[in-house]
């Protein structure tokens, strides 16, 4: 035994959780922005401009998180599929000995 094991359920769970957390961050940014819009009506100048720049930056960060999440999901799925294929091949090798 090499001490390495893959739990398919945990791989799937990790993938799902990454997506949920990314969407939660996006949701909270939008909630904050909705609340701030009421205050921004009374603001002008640098304060308003800096806030708008920051929200734009946060949204871009979420977009980056989604991109990275997609790459991570692909990698996790590839690991899962590769391990599953190896597991099936080894099972067939053992079965052929019987």
TrEMBL record:
<dbReference type="Pfam" id="PF06013">
    <property type="entry name" value="WXG100"/>
</dbReference>
<comment type="similarity">
    <text>Belongs to the WXG100 family.</text>
</comment>
<dbReference type="InterPro" id="IPR036689">
    <property type="entry name" value="ESAT-6-like_sf"/>
</dbReference>
<keyword id="KW-0175">Coiled coil</keyword>
<feature type="coiled-coil region">
    <location>
        <begin position="22"/>
        <end position="82"/>
    </location>
</feature>
<dbReference type="InterPro" id="IPR010310">
    <property type="entry name" value="T7SS_ESAT-6-like"/>
</dbReference>
<protein>
    <recommendedName>
        <fullName>ESAT-6-like protein</fullName>
    </recommendedName>
</protein>
């Amino acid at each position: 035994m090499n001490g390495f094991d893959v739990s398919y359920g945990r791989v799937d769970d990790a993938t799902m959780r990454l997506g949920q957390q990314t969407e939660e961050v996006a949701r909270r940014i939008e909630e904050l922005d909705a609340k701030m819009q009421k205050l921004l009506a009374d603001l002008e100048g640098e304060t308003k401009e800096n806030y708008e720049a920051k929200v734009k930056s946060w949204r871009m960060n979420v977009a980056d998180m989604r991109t990275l999440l997609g790459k991570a999901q692909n990698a996790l799925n590839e690991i899962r599929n590769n391990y599953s294929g190896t597991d099936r091949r080894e099972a067939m090798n053992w079965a052929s000995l019987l």
